[in-house]
Design a protein that fits this description.
The structure holds two protein chains of two kinds. Chain A is an alpha+beta fold. Helices cover 38% and strands 16% of the residues of chain A. In chain B, strand 2 and strand 3 form a beta hairpin. Classes of the chains: A alpha+beta, B mainly beta. Chain B: GO terms for molecular function: structural molecule activity. Chain B: Keywords: Lysosome, mRNA transport, Nuclear pore complex, Nucleus, Protein transport, Repeat, Translocation, Transport, WD repeat.
Chain lengths: 1204, 320
């Protein structure tokens, strides 16, 4: 494709490869005249600028010269750091060799000529510079003259050796491209000489015996040192010969295609498989010298091209100088000529002053330049893709921090018969090693439930006091007597205080031990309250009867006067005498006799007492009165709302000591809010402590984000650790899962999940992803995580998290048409429920227990537009909608023995059995609205300490609609509908977070030290934070026997086994992240039952013991739920293997393979085991082994990963 | 930091030119000078040949996966001047569309963000860029930018879908006003930004810094910040990071990431947009990350040597 063109009759030289921008130097050529017979000559430099689409080249500098040129080269000698400069060397018709500075020419400076020599006696046709030492230049002229010039010392050239005889014109000189001291020269008579400059003599001569080769060009192979090509100008032999000096008696190859003599050649330095030649047949060809094939023919003019040159810098470009006086720049990459021609026309058109070309002052219509017929000539590119477009290397990121890289080994010079392996590497890139480490620790803590030690460790390693404080507070949440400990953390120690009080009162302090003994303290408090109660008891009667009151007064004076005068005393007496307490109190107050006033008002009834207190307190203005006031009136709002923020500790302490559980959280939040409002970092940290006390995750996150960096991965890790711990502690106290519907937390967790995903921790990332969000970004990430996890291969039905736009080749739908705007697209992302879904939901028997429903009761006909993928549908969110009436289903009671076992975990047992209804249930998963999420947790427990394991479902369920509050915890799972929809609601403070406060049930006024509710240690299945509470364990059992036939392998059901039977298949459908612990228990039972059927042949028992122990080892070592799930699955699937073993139905080769694998496993050589596995699989009947072989592979892979 | 978890022997009979994982990172598509496109299931560290796509008549330069919401679709471009869009139907891969609108080698294909629908940009050595939009009914609408880069376009990369002036997604129901933009690099040493206005593609910016062919460009995924970031690499060995903070997208500043000693062929952003992988002619892959103070630092050197199958290189071992 023609790119640039200019009218010049000239020799050409490209600027060298390092030169930027690309320039083309043109020197008026000798022995050619144009029609004007102009004999001036010049050296011109043009810039070849391809950002300008026109055919023009911009003239950058011009220097008139006295001679015309036969040859011109641009040497990178003297090149500047920036790649500019170098030297132009030109050989003229009269033998003058001139060195120019192109920079000076371009800047029109005076001293453009740097050196000049008249050594040559005739026209200098040959010039070449040494590719290794750019100061070395070879020139050839007539009379066999060859000089080697050193640009550093231009005056005295050397010769490569004695002149060849007979004396001839030198048509070409060429430096070897590999060996720097080798030079070759050739002459038109058909001789070529190779010179060794170290020996200063010719070392080999090449001559064609046909005598018809008239050498016009000669080039060394760019890469092979011993090869060169020679072209012949003779029309009788228009060929290119390739010679190899290792065999210099005849040419290696002869390239024949030109029909007339060849004038010029150029060998691409960028791709040795591209050799250009131009000839008198008006053609310019590009050869592949390796094959001799013409791979390109330039669409050229009908003129001879006497000089052709590849552009050293841009390998796709070449310039051709033709005898019709044109210099043309072409690209060999093909393309259309259209654009260029169009722009040429534009240039012509605009070169006239269209407005007023004749200066007449009259505006003429635009000049109609006859447009050349735009031919839409398509020029095809090189047949062979040039080397420089063949990308040899690449690295692309993929989801999950994977990096895909490939490289192509440099082609060996000698073609080896061995095919090169073409490899692509998939690597895992991790950059946040610290984050991953901490995330693992967090995961471990979350899964093992060792929160205390986790917090302890955090306290140990905390870098700042503030950080330490926060962890201490978080830790306390996991401990008993949290409030007391909070107090101590705030600097209020009861012991310490006691000591101080004693000191103050001058009593000797008596203490019965060191530190705080909880029991002791509790006893003390018990005593205290009993005493108080006694006092109260004693006082009560006195308030009833004034007489009694007086009877208790000290009777030191046997006689006393009752004043009845008209002064205050008298009036008081009189008032008392007539029983006017109010008046008496008023009088006392008025007189400043507060003590009397209080005493009297105690007798005067509660109302009076209160009034008196108020009056008293409103009159008192000292520093502690506010506190006293609050303590007396129990009005803590005032304290938190108006205390000095510097007193936040005291305020918080007061709350911890006195605040009612129902108010506690709210008050803490208020205080936190005030602190946060100050917006200083210190206050924000203090606010965080308040939120930790109140268990308000959302506020904690917001506040934290205000002043801490959450953008950096580690900053985020800091936050997530705290949030998860706080959440855990709340769950522990509430004994149920906590779902926080906070946009900011969701955002942070999503971000965190994103980072984990990017680091390759896909399974872990999944666990952090907010569950009940239909936010586009979260849904998509969840989908991506799900599908990205390699294990998803195992036959699970992946959730269809977004609507696949239909771009079927067969039948497109409008939905997929047109670039849809995002809103529309996102709605398409919503899942498409299988058509049967709504229908199913309307069949009460089917979905009644399984169709998840929003707590807001949107009903069974809720269209499944809001998407929650399966993981969440196993969550408590999907509380069954229907059982608002207790439905002691037939067939339920017999299964009760399994209840307690399954109850605590819920988990997959609550998962619908497989079947057509399954996807519908999944996809129509509801969206929980934030307010509804709170009541979903267990109600606050007024009678703490009832461990969930003590529930007796068998009694609770049939007993009808009991209020959940009457039997905390127990009925809820069994009777999900009741919690929300009927029965006296348990006392619930307003707002979703209120139940948190009730997690401190001990915190009644005046009873801070009562031993607090200690939740039973979480039973195993409770450990995963994402374990759902056992919501649907019971009801679902009803369905299974009705419409589900247990899979065949389970042949000996024990009691209730039909119910459990579907479990494995249920399980297989549980998406990653879903809890599965209950099934662990279940699966562990399975083998035991099977043993009873039939023994595994003794010789194969080793298989079982090896594999089972491997599963166990893995289970112990496995951290993430994903792996655990797989291991559970493994336990089950191995059962199939054992079945086969019992039946002795496996072929000999498989058995051998299994034993081999077992040996590998035993020796922990999993790699080898996998290899054997592959062999077995590839050589066996698939149906025979499909039940268990895949899981063996998974198992070994896991084992390998875990290093067990 | 970087450890090989899977080595896939593609059995290609000639140079591999591109290897791309699908959206989930479970399937690998490769293309080669042997004119084929291959697809592997690489889950669990394995390699299962899923498809061997034949249809190109020249070396295949690049492959690109469409977003899975449109189905399993792969585009490939070749020296044979063709772009082929392949689609999986019922488990088998077939040509969905063949585009022959270029006059020279098609060097780059890139799918636009899914928000824009099924839209593909193709850059060719004929200097033009084609934008193909699926309009349904097996129809593809073609818009062509002629002479986008004189003497050839080497790379195209879409901008993430961001509504100008808004960082957050607009409430659903409101029609988001996306501006479609992409970046291209070419043999004119330029990086150019293109913008669709009133259905027409216009040159939006021309970024000059490279002194030789721009080999690849990569528009970084949006990380929720108002900054747009583009990486460009060149024959001149330089990699530039271009950033633009102003909402109008007019002021771009270039920062030199590094000057390599060899051609830099390819740049690739991590999914989260914080790491840049740079692959050079010396068969070396380096990973770069921006530090807090805005400096780009090399965090890893993924050199494996010539075809060697080493899991971790020495430098990485010392790092670990």
């Amino acid at each position: 494709m023609r790119l640039k063109e200019i009218q010049r009759t000239a020799h050409q030289a490209w600027s060298h490869a390092e030169h930027h921008p690309i320039h083309l130097a043109l020197g008026t050529s000798a022995q050619q005249l144009d029609a004007s017979f102009n004999t001036t000559s010049a050296l011109e430099i043009f810039e070849v600028d391809f950002s300008d689409p026109s055919l023009e080249m911009q003239l950058k500098g011009s220097l008139p010269t006295s001679n015309r040129f036969h040859s011109i080269v641009w040497v990178n000698y003297g090149m500047g750091e920036d790649g500019t400069g170098g030297r132009l060397v030109a050989g003229s018709e009269n033998g003058t060799l001139t060195v120019y500075n192109p920079e000076v020419i371009m800047s029109s400076g005076a001293e453009a000529v740097i050196g000049q020599s008249d050594k040559h006696t005739g026209p200098i046709r040959a010039l070449d510079f040494n590719p290794f030492q750019s100061n070395l230049l070879a020139s050839g002229a007539n009379d066999s003259e060859i000089y080697i010039w050193d640009l550093n010392n231009f005056s005295s050239p050397m010769t490569p050796g004695a002149k060849t005889q007979p004396a001839e014109d030198i048509s070409v000189v060429s430096w070897n491209r590999q060996v720097q001291h080798i030079l070759a020269s050739a002459n038109p008579s058909g001789k070529a000489v190779v010179w060794d400059l170290r020996k200063n003599e010719p070392i080999i001569k090449i001559s064609d015996h046909s005598n018809r080769m008239h050498y016009s060009g000669m080039l060394w192979h760019p890469e092979v040192a011993t090869q060169l090509v020679l072209s012949s100008e003779d029309d009788r032999m228009p060929v290119i010969q390739m010679w190899d000096l290792r065999f210099a008696t005849s040419p290696l190859k002869v390239f024949e295609n030109h029909t007339r003599g060849i004038l010029s050649m150029s060998w691409s330095q960028a791709d040795p498989e591209l050799l250009l030649s131009s000839a008198k047949d008006n053609r310019i060809l590009c050869w592949n010298p390796n094959t001799g094939e013409v791979i390109y023919e330039l669409p050229t003019t009908n003129q001879w091209c006497f000089d052709i040159q590849w552009c050293p810098r841009n390998p796709a470009l070449l310039s051709a100088a033709s005898f019709d006086g044109r210099i043309t720049v072409y690209s060999v990459m093909g393309g259309s000529l259209k654009a260029q021609q169009q722009s040429t026309a534009d240039t012509i058109s605009s070169s006239f002053d269209a407005m007023d070309p004749f200066g007449t002052g009259q505006v003429l219509p635009p000049l109609q330049v006859p447009q050349p017929v735009v031919q839409d000539t398509i020029v095809s590119p090189l047949k062979k893709p040039p080397k420089w477009v063949r990308r040899p290397v690449g690295a692309s990121f993929a989801f999950g921090g994977k990096l895909v890289t490939f490289e192509n080994p440099k082609p060996a010079p000698v073609q080896s018969p061995q095919p090169v392996p073409r490899l692509v590497f998939v690597s895992q890139v991790t950059t946040e090693t610290e984050l991953l480490q901490r995330s693992r620790e967090l995961q471990a803590a979350l899964q093992s439930g060792s929160f205390n030690s986790y917090c302890q460790a955090k306290i140990q390693s905390a870098k700042s006091d503030a950080e330490q404080d926060i962890w201490k507070f978080l830790l306390v949440n996991f401990e008993d007597e949290a409030r007391v400990k909070f107090l101590r953390l705030l600097g209020f120690s009861k012991d310490e205080l006691e000591r101080k009080i004693s000191k103050c009162l001058g009593k000797s302090f008596q203490h019965n031990g060191h530190g705080v003994d909880a029991k002791d303290l509790a006893q003390k408090m018990q005593q205290l309250s009993t005493e108080r109660a006694d006092e109260g008891d004693a006082a009560t009667p006195s308030s009833v009867s004034p007489a009694d009151f007086f009877s208790q007064t000290p009777k030191e004076n046997s006689n006393f006067q009752i004043p009845v005068s008209c002064d205050t005393d008298g009036l008081i007496s009189q008032a008392l005498l007539v029983g006017n307490f109010e008046g008496a109190v008023d009088l006392c107050l008025n007189d400043g006799r507060y003590a009397e006033a209080i005493l009297l008002s105690i007798s005067g009834g509660e109302e009076l007492l209160k009034k008196t207190q108020q009056t008293y307190l409103s009159n008192q203005k000292n520093s502690i009165s506010m506190l006293i006031s609050s303590v007396v009136t129990q009005n803590w709002s005032d304290i938190v709302q108006s205390c000095e923020l510097d007193n936040w500790k005291e305020a918080l302490a007061a709350l911890l000591t006195y605040a009612h559980p129902e108010d506690f959280a709210r008050l803490c939040d208020t205080l936190g809010g005030r602190l946060e409002h100050e917006r200083t970092e210190k206050r924000c940290l203090q606010a965080c402590l308040c939120y930790i006390c109140s268990g308000n995750i959302e506020k904690l996150v917001e506040c934290w984000a205000l002043h801490r960096d959450c953008a950096s991965p580690l900053g985020l890790e800091d936050l997530v650790e705290k949030v998860m711990m706080l959440r855990k502690s709340i769950e522990r106290l509430r004994n149920s899962e906590v779902v926080v519907q906070s946009p900011i937390l969701a955002e942070k967790l999503t971000c965190y999940a994103g980072i984990l995903a990017a680091e390759g921790s896909l399974a872990t990332a999944m666990t952090y992803l907010p569950e009940h969000s239909d936010q586009a970004g979260i849904t998509m990430l969840r989908d991506r995580l799900f599908h990205a996890q390699e294990e998803a291969a195992g036959g699970q039905q992946p959730p269809n998290s977004f609507n696949r736009a239909n771009v079927s080749t067969a039948k497109p739908t409008p939905a997929a048409q047109a670039p849809a705007p995002k809103a529309q697209m996102m709605s398409q992302y919503q899942p498409q429920a299988p058509p049967q879904a709504p229908q199913q939901q309307q069949q009460p028997p089917m979905p009644s227990f399984y169709t998840p429903q929003t707590a807001t009761n949107s009903g069974p006909d809720l269209p499944p537009f809001s998407h929650v993928p399966p993981p969440s549908s196993t969550r408590p969110a999907s509380r069954p909608p229907y059982p608002q009436q207790p439905a002691p289903a037939p067939g339920f009671l017999p299964h009760q023995p399994f209840q307690p076992q399954r109850m605590p975990g819920g988990g997959p047992s609550g998962f619908p059995p497989p079947g057509p209804s399954m996807p519908a249930a999944n996809l129509s998963g509801p969206q929980l609205s934030p307010p509804s999420s709170a009541p979903r947790g267990l109600p606050p427990m007024p009678s703490p300490g009832v461990p969930p394991t003590s529930f007796m479902p068998s009694t609770s369920l049939p007993s009808g609609p009991i209020s959940p509050s009457s039997q905390p915890g127990a009925p809820v799972p069994m009777y999900p509908g009741g919690l929300h929809n009927q029965g006296p609601a348990p006392p619930m403070a307003p707002g979703p977070y209120a139940p948190v406060g009730s997690g401190y049930p001990q915190g009644g006024p005046g009873a801070p030290a009562v031993k607090p509710f200690s939740a039973p240690p979480p039973t195993g299945p409770h450990e995963g934070w994402n374990d759902p509470p056992a919501v649907r364990g019971g009801p679902r059992k009803k369905k299974v026997p009705e419409n589900y036939t247990p899979p065949a392998p389970i042949t000996a059901p024990v009691m209730g086994f039909p119910v459990e039977a579907p479990q494995p298949r249920d399980h297989a459908q549980v998406p990653p992240g879903a809890p599965q612990e209950p099934s662990v228990q279940l699966l562990q039972q399975l083998p035991a039952e099977r043993v009873e059927q039939k023994e595994i042949p003794a010789e194969h028992m080793v298989l079982r013991s090896t594999f089972d122990s491997l599963v166990q080892r893995c289970q112990l070592a496995a951290g993430d739920p994903q792996t655990k799930r797989k291991l559970d699955d493994a336990g089950k699937r191995l059962g199939y293997l054992y079945d086969k073993l019992r039946e002795q139905s496996l072929s000999h080769s498989i058995l051998n393979g299994l034993h081999e694998i077992s040996r590998c496993v035993a020796s922990q050589n999993y790699q080898r085991g996998l290899e054997v596995h592959t062999q077995v699989v590839s050589s066996s009947n698939f149906s025979e082994i499909s039940a268990f072989m895949p899981i063996l592979k998974v198992l070994m892979t896991i084992a390998n990963k875990l290093g067990v | 930091m970087v450890s090989v978890i899977n080595t896939v022997d593609t059995s290609h009979e000639d140079m591999i030119h591109d290897a791309q994982m699908d959206y989930y990172g479970t399937r690998l598509a490769t293309c080669s000078s042997d004119r084929t496109v291959k697809m592997f299931d690489v889950r669990n560290g394995g390699q299962i040949l899923v498809a061997d796509l034949r249809g190109h008549e020249g070396p295949v330069w690049q492959v690109a996966w469409a977003h899975p919401m449109f189905g399993n679709i792969l585009a490939s471009c070749s020296y044979d001047r063709k772009v082929i869009i392949w689609k999986e139907e019922n488990g088998s891969w077939d040509k969905m569309h063949e585009y022959c609108g270029h006059e020279s080698s098609v060097n780059s294909v890139c799918w636009g963000p899914y928000d824009f629908g099924l839209i593909l940009a193709c850059g060719s050595s004929d200097g033009a860029i084609s934008i193909l939009t699926f309009t349904g009914d097996q129809q593809w609408d073609v818009k062509k930018i002629s002479n986008a880069h004189t003497i050839g376009c080497n790379a195209v990369s879409w901008a993430p879908a961001v509504v100008p002036g808004s960082l957050i997604d607009q409430p659903s129901g409101q029609k988001p006003n996306y501006v479609k933009r992409f970046v291209s690099g070419g043999c004119d040493n330029l990086v150019k930004l293109w913008k669709e206005e009133d259905g027409q593609w216009k040159e939006d910016q021309k970024l000059e810094a490279h002194s030789d062919w721009v080999r690849d460009v990569g528009w970084a995924p949006s990380i929720g910040l108002p900054t747009s970031t583009i990486a460009s690499c060149s024959q001149d060995g330089r990699v530039f990071i271009w950033t633009c903070d102003d909402p109008a997208g007019n002021t771009w500043t270039a920062k030199l990431l590094h000057k390599f000693n060899d051609v830099v062929w390819h740049v690739s952003w991590s999914i989260t947009g914080n790491i840049l992988a740079v692959s050079g002619g010396d068969n070396k892959v380096t990973l770069w990350k921006e530090s807090m103070d805005g400096q780009w630092a090399c965090i890893s050197d993924v050199s494996k040597g010539q075809g060697a199958v080493s899991t971790i290189t020495d430098t990485q071992q010392t790092e670990q």
